[in-house]
């Protein structure tokens, strides 16, 4: 899929969790569409390849280490983005954590850790982005959630609870910040192949999972990234408060 050259020309974007997987793909597609891009991750080792890929597309790239659970670190992150990219038009809250665990065995710290990365981190980043987006007269926040936020998926009560919270936060912030010209939307991917998270959580069951999907395959990272480009663009200027499900129709059937 090819977007019109420059559909995001003149815009600056930040993607948390932007060094690997879906986040890296989103960063590259935003750059391909004309945006200058900052990527952030708790582990700086994840960022260098993503930064080089953005620069290879002819865009300015910034790589910044940040733990999104740390409010002070988040404030420093956005100060650096403003200083190095001149401002912010698009925030993609993609940083996330997950692991499989029965609910009765899940420790309070395990539950808290995932909720803090996914939900609290998305809030802290959105809050820090607010004044920068207002300076530009508005902008877009895209939250990467998951279909498990609206399904009953065993062994993932922590992640499902966090993602459901992100869906709710998307609607709340869209309502509150809409008058300031800020759109807040979410993308809920189903099973996406060739990602670290999928390899860890699926346990080699890719073919079985694919058979549970009406389109009979796993999703591709770029299919999430292309939607992010559209939602960040003026083509989606009247879309806010929505969670867009991208799952090949899996939600139409019982969960795997």
Topology of this structure?
Elements: E1 12-16, H1 21-32, E2 36-41, H2 48-56, E3 61-65, H3 71-85, E4 90-93, H4 108-135, E5 139-144, H5 157-177, E6 182-189, H6 196-202, H7 206-211, H8 221-232, E7 243-246
Parallel strand pairs: 1-2, 1-4, 2-3, 4-5, 5-6, 6-7
The domain count comes to 1
Specify the helix fraction band: 40-55%
- The ordered string of helix (H) and strand (E) elements is EHEHEHEHEHEHHHE
Cα-atom radius of gyration: 17 Å
Largest sheet: 7 strands, parallel
- How much of the sequence lies in strands comes to 5-15%
What's the overall geometry? globular
CA-CA gap between termini: 29 Å
CATH architecture assignment name: 3-Layer(aba) Sandwich
Count of alpha/pi helices: 8
Residue runs with pLDDT of under 50 for 5 or more positions: none
């Amino acid at each position: 899929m090819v977007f019109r050259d420059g559909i995001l020309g003149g815009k600056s974007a930040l993607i948390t969790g932007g060094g690997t997987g879906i986040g890296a793909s989103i960063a590259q597609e935003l750059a391909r569409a004309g945006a200058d891009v900052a990527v952030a991750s708790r582990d700086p080792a994840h960022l260098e390849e993503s930064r080089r890929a953005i620069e290879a597309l002819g865009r300015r790239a910034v790589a910044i280490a940040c733990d999104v659970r740390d409010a002070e670190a988040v404030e420093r992150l956005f100060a650096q983005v403003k200083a190095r990219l001149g401002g912010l038009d698009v925030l993609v809250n993609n940083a996330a954590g997950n692991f499989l665990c029965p609910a009765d065995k899940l420790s309070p710290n395990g539950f808290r850790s995932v909720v803090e990365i996914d939900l609290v981190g998305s809030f802290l980043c959105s809050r820090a982005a607010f004044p920068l987006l207002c300076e530009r007269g508005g902008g877009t926040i895209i939250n990467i959630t998951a279909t498990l936020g609206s399904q009953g998926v065993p062994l993932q009560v922590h992640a499902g609870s966090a993602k459901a919270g992100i869906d709710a936060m998307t609607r709340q912030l869209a309502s509150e910040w809409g008058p300031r010209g800020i759109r807040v939307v979410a993308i809920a991917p189903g099973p996406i192949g060739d990602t670290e998270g999928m390899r860890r959580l699926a346990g080699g069951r890719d073919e079985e999972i694919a058979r549970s999907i009406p389109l009979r395959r796993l999703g591709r990272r770029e299919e999430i990234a292309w939607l992010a480009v559209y939602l960040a663009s003026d083509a989606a200027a009247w879309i806010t408060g929505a969670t867009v499900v991208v799952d090949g129709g899996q939600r139409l059937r019982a969960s795997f």
